[in-house]
UniProtKB/TrEMBL annotation:
This is CNTD1 protein. Transmembrane segments: none annotated. SUPFAM superfamilies: Cyclin-like. It comes from the Eukaryota. InterPro entries: Cyclin-like_sf. One of its GO terms (biological process) is reciprocal meiotic recombination. GO terms for cellular component: site of double-strand break.
Length: 227
């Protein structure tokens, strides 16, 4: 996310400079590449450091470790430059670095299910959920198109229905419960009903909605209308 935003900012500044100084495009692009190239490794290390602070808590990649790594690559950055680089990344992202993902929701719900006494094979289920999340993103439009048609009981939704359905596509909690439900159904169908009831109790999402999401995912996995 940082690299995308930084490149956008550099390109914007470069375009403004070209307009104001009427420079040639070739020299401007060359300067732009140099800016990105010169700071890339340092910024990359800063991103890893920030990610470690969010995820590892007690075993973060501290400044000393980062400096040793940079020195092993023949870079002579100081600790002050490293701190300033972290701050530059934070500013570029407007300090919004702890962005939730569907995987966070899945892992949290799996922990709650385990705490509530659902005896599930945690490691195989987690791996299956990871694979299903990948699959759901690769076939995202198809899955949600199926889900919409199920919800409205119509194969030709109107533009208004499609527009209203956007909130469903952005609901990470619905995606998470649907992924877990599908994973349990594949690995251990005998526990599926209990897990769906627990997910309904934990999240408030109806069992019917969970069932419909699982159906949509399974339909595209199997490639049949009747999974």
């Amino acid at each position: 996310r940082f690299m995308i935003k930084q490149v956008e900012q550099i390109c914007k500044t470069s375009r403004e400079n070209v307009k104001s100084h009427e420079q040639g495009q070739g020299s401007s692009w060359s300067s732009l590449k140099d800016q990105i190239y010169d700071m890339f490794v340092l910024r990359l290390v800063s991103c890893v450091q920030l990610a470690s602070k969010l995820s590892l808590h007690y075993n973060i990649v501290n400044s000393d470790t980062a400096l040793k790594f940079l020195q092993s690559l023949k870079y002579s950055y100081t600790k002050q430059e490293l701190l300033e680089s972290e701050l530059a990344v934070l500013k570029c992202l407007h300090f919004q670095i702890n962005v939730s993902t569907p995987l966070v929701y899945v892992e949290l719900l799996l922990e709650v299910l385990g705490h509530n006494g659902c005896l599930l094979p945690s490691k195989p289920l987690h791996q299956m959920c990871m694979q299903l999340l990948d699959f759901s993103y690769l076939t995202r439009d198809s899955i949600y198109d199926t889900l919409l048609k199920i919800a409205i009981e119509n194969s030709t939704p109107s533009k208004l229905q499609v527009a209203k359905f956007l909130t469903v596509k952005e609901d990470f909690m619905l995606l998470a419960v649907g992924i877990i439900s599908t994973g349990v159904f594949i690995l251990n169908p005998g526990h599926w009903k209990q897990v769906v009831e627990q997910l309904n109790y934990i999240t408030g999402i109806t069992s019917q909605s969970i069932l419909e999401f699982s159906y949509a995912v399974l339909k595209h996995i199997v490639g049949s209308a009747t999974p």
